[in-house]
Description:
Chain A is mainly alpha-helical. Chain A contains 13 helices and two strands, in the order βαααααααααααααβ. The termini of chain B are far apart. Chain B contains 18 helices and 23 strands. Chain B: It holds the Pfam family ABC_tran. Chain B: This is Nucleoside ABC transporter ATP-binding protein.
Amino acid sequence: MRLERRETVPLTLVATAPLAAVVAALVLAAGLIAAAGVNPLAAYGEMLRGAFGSRLSLTEMLTRATPLILTGLAAAVAFRARLWNIGGEGQFFMGALATAWIGHSLALPGLLGMAVLMICGMAAGALLLAGPAFLRLRFGVDEVVTTLLLNFIVILFVGLMIEGPLRDPLAFGWPQSVPVDSAYRLADLVPRTRLHMGLLVALAAAGVVWLVLTRTVFGVETRAAGLNARAAAFAGISLPRTIMGVALLSGALAGLAGAIEVMGVTGGVTTTMSPGFGYAGIVVAMLAALHPAGVVAAAVFVATVFVGADAMSRATGVPSFIADVIVALSLLTMLVALLFTTYRVRR
Amino acid sequence: MTPVLELSHITKRFGPLVANEDVSLRLGQGEILALLGENGAGKTTLMNILFGHYEADEGEVRVFGETLPAGKPRAAIAAGVGMVHQHFTLAGNLSVLDNVMLGSERLSRIGSDRRAARKKLMAISERFGLPVDPDARVSKLSVGERQRVEILKALYRDARVLILDEPTAVLARPEAERLFETLRGMTQDGLSLIFISHKLHEVMAASDRVAVLRGGRMVAERATSETSSSELAELMVGRKVQRPVRQDHAIGAPVLQAERITIVEEGETRLEDISFTVNEGEILGIVGVSGNGQGALGALLSGLMAPTSGALRLNGADVGQLGPRGLIAAGAARVPEDRHAEGAVGEMTVWENAILERLRSAAFSRFGFVRRAEAKAHARELIQRFDVRGAGPDTRIRLLSGGNMQKLILGRCLATGPRFLLANQPTRGLDEGAIAAVHEELLAARAEGAAILLISEELEEAVQLSDRIQAIVKGRLSEPVAAGEADARRLGLMMAGVWDTQDAA
């Protein structure tokens, strides 16, 4: 038996690969659910109801999807250029921290202030990834290691700040940062739910990223550099500039996710505000085959699993950790599915 | 003549592709058979079936009258078939003797009998006239010597039928001639040989019989003495193909000048004190055995490497430090050595590849956005003007054949009417039809006044196209000779690094 590269990859195969991966992940996780003594179909039914069953559950799911869209875009943009940004989590927190800190004492009119805060969050995320990108370009340091390790450093740094200089004096001793000024809180998209305008920002970001990747000189250069760095260099495309540009864009998107989460949901920063948005963004990007439109769909899937698993846990007693298992399994099955889209198996 | 080897009615399919269709072949005792065909004609597939790397869908292989079990290289070796691959399969960190012994001893043996092995190797070496130092490390050997080790490896396994896949692909002309002399001598010792080639001259010079494959079918078999190069060329391509001929015309002023350029990279001298001039309307050919600095010369003229010392001038301006974009803007165009690795991004479309070098020019972008309509129109124009087949602007360029991809890359270069063109191995791996097309375009550009530097390992090509020729040896350049004075002997000497003595004489 051996693998043979396909001459062309039919579009239907590209579209069905993520679906097949998701189904495979759910089937595999069904084994674990059954082992917990629950009928998997019933459990998945609860999960769907928990994410789509009511107005509240639907808006909760979309609230979760909002930062996932942005961290998913961050990973997709970077991976396309073969910049392995595993630091979405750290960039998310830096964006959140910068937004809370500056937004606490900013004195600008509402909308302008919001825009400024989002830009601050983006800048913070971008700067955090600029470091590893520089180290890779200058010294050949593997960015997988640097970005991953930075996540832990950043979370410890956030802990330091919210225990210290940015501690909220009104939080009764809870480790929480000062909140952004209420003038800069994003309005509710659906009244009396947590769903906020940030979803529209995330969707707009997906549109902008698509436009940048497919229609601009920068986008074509990025794709060329990612697909064949030697040919890109031969054609005169500056690889360092492309990589740095991609790093700034990717970090900015993850930072924006943090900014919006603070402005729309939490107000201040806590070290527990992210259930792994940055890491889940990698899964989202892979399930989306690195396509911006796919990122939106994949973010909805991952959010469904996260939100639905809580409901399932309450109804059936299966631990909600199954959500992490399903998300992780879907990354693995997607990698297998990608193998089968690029190669065919021969005897 | 008794057949030592017989292939009968071999058919092999890869999905919808038929690589071999009903091919039958006989090899007589002591015979040299050339298997001639273009790239993709199915030569290598056929030999891989014979050697057991592939299983044929239909047909069988008989060696000395015995049918070989399909798909078992070990059985082929045991039956006395040896194969010398185009890409060597030697371990560079081991000695010649180790390499030859490798895999010939049973795994269950304790210790290895090096003394007996050495004795056997030396006996073979002497008998077939293939001198080697059994203790030399393979990584220290020249390409020609490595090939000798490959052949010895096959003979050590008692091969009586030897298959050589493109044996001269990596050899300089004199080395290739020596190889064929050796092979000829070996047949007198009872060996029978098949060699695969797409080079007509060596087929004519070295074989007893020729089998021509085209599109997976055996189209002709000829005794070499009863055929001619032109007949073989026609059989191989399936129609009459003639390479265009260079017309004499007046040569203009200098366009590109290299002045005493040295390039040192990571402590190693890649180019040493080289100087040359390419004039308007002139093709300067750089010949040499691969690995003698062509890579660095190509990188220099592509803008990927800057001179450590010396100057590169294009129309008088120093362009050595400009990088690819600056060099292109200054009027240079480049055909890279490896079109898949450097010339094109396979997964991108034809139109994207067509403008990749000029993405940032006003013609193809505005406010940072790509002007897609203009870019696609440009791609369509290139496709039409340079006769690129099987592609539209939105086709992924990976799906193009080598010849068509090369025509597109050449078109991308020539569309701007460049002052200087680097053509680095422009026909490597192309079939006869595509070679003629590429030559035609190069000569047309020359006629329009472009200064062209041609780097080639194909002597015929260099002599046919170039006005003057210089040889590159170990990073140094010989003095130029006019094409008219460049006979095979003189070029062979130049490529071997013998030119100082001639200058003195």
